[in-house]
């Protein structure tokens, strides 16, 4: 890869797109030229980047000429159509959708875990699902030391996971509720003001929804361990950004909460927030806007008297580590 | 018990107190006389009851003369002080606090599960914790048929569990957030607008907070099974009323989701809300204002290949089935 690559952002006006640009700026990613691509509707508008204005261009089949790295976050169907075009034009694609994640020749990468897989790419590297990233960054140091064989996750997922329009719907519908006005949901299938609901992806034959299935199968691929037994319950809560998760895991050998704490205290991408006296633990507002996965509530799983299981509670910015930051970290490693 | 008992409500101006009165009205509970008791601050104000106005009296040691049933919901310290006084004056106390729940001679009752224990009372009957009730009503029909030996619960608890002032704080702080104004939390220890946090009860030596410990020990007492291994993670979410819970349970013998569904379809106090095609499952706004525990997302726990475990998602009105309704049901059985 050249020293100052041309980087294209596909979905530049979306919630993750904005964070791509933010991450590139704050991390001083050595972009030569930035191309902001979006739908025709946004073409001609501008976006601020390093003190200048970048004009948004319409995404077309000709958009990728001269592009070295293309960061995609515009949904699965856009990725399916345009990622192969970008690869053909010579770009390496880091794709935030689920379109290519489970393909055998597409590395699925969380840099803290399997940066070594990046080199195997055939043009496309996939960014995992945000709920997967949030869980796996803190679980990896444990798994490496004492294999995790069973994993039970309940998520508390923010509006941001469904995009900027869903964030606006949460704010607007809550405002309407507080003013006693009616509000008809447009983006999400259920009323969102002071409410929560099962994740809005279709339920599959297993009874698990699409989001839950992603967490299950992506965990196995990233940990390169097909035997991990995973249960996920994905729930959308009325939080604007940053996902939280209640996680219980069972290891092959006995493990104590103190051992988990010792493994996580200096782990990359992890920040311990576990103050029992002050009752201060990971919260979405603290996770928002920063790159680490916050981890706390580290304690023995009292439902497993064998001493092989520990419970934790985590929170991470869905738009940063859950999406844009992870992708930019991958791009840096390119 | 006489046919038209005099009923005292202790904590009549609180969130649960208001629901006590509502439940007595809607269920046509045959109250002879209603005494509304509260702190001196509220004395002299009135409350509507059956088309008339009841004058709120200050709670004193003399308040319980002639009272047959006293419904307490004014916090543990009020219960500790005044419940024995009420009993001495001849009343039967149904107490919504945690003050007496674990005492051996105090029945801890969910009518759908152990109404038979009411007769053992020595003056006080305890109402379980709201998170406990929400979980156990749907688990009981399963446990009776195929013993539940392990239980992992993650809660999504509403503001109402912390009282009317916490509900107001959620609404007020959210309004301030949407208007870009600062807001200093007064009732709860953390900012609540579009945020969530670990339950605001003190963390014990086990690493579990007070709320989680209640769920663990109350489950064993109500099911009369000291061997059930329980793990609870209690989280406060920005929902006004109605608690939700993600529950995974493991039974002694193999069990299928279909068997669980068959056990729950006509179970007392349970309503199945499990429409996979429409992605329609239990939500707090649907649970609010009605008496059943909504149950859905009934599916195999994919992290237990032995087929002994099933996951469900539930929601129930914390102020009704989680508190006032359960207590009034107990009073009816008296």
UniProtKB/TrEMBL annotation, chains A, B:
List of catalytic residues: 130 (acyl-thioester intermediate), 243 (proton acceptor)
Enzyme class: oxidoreductase
A GO molecular-function descriptor: NADP binding
Pfam families: Semialdhyde_dh, Semialdhyde_dhC
Pathway linked to the protein: Amino-acid biosynthesis; L-methionine biosynthesis via de novo pathway; L-homoserine from L-aspartate: step 2/3; Amino-acid biosynthesis; L-lysine biosynthesis via DAP pathway; (S)-tetrahydrodipicolinate from L-aspartate: step 2/4; Amino-acid biosynthesis; L-threonine biosynthesis; L-threonine from L-aspartate: step 2/5
Residues that hold substrate according to the record: 157, 236
Domain of life: Bacteria
Ligand binding (phosphate): 101
Protein name per its UniProtKB record: Aspartate-semialdehyde dehydrogenase
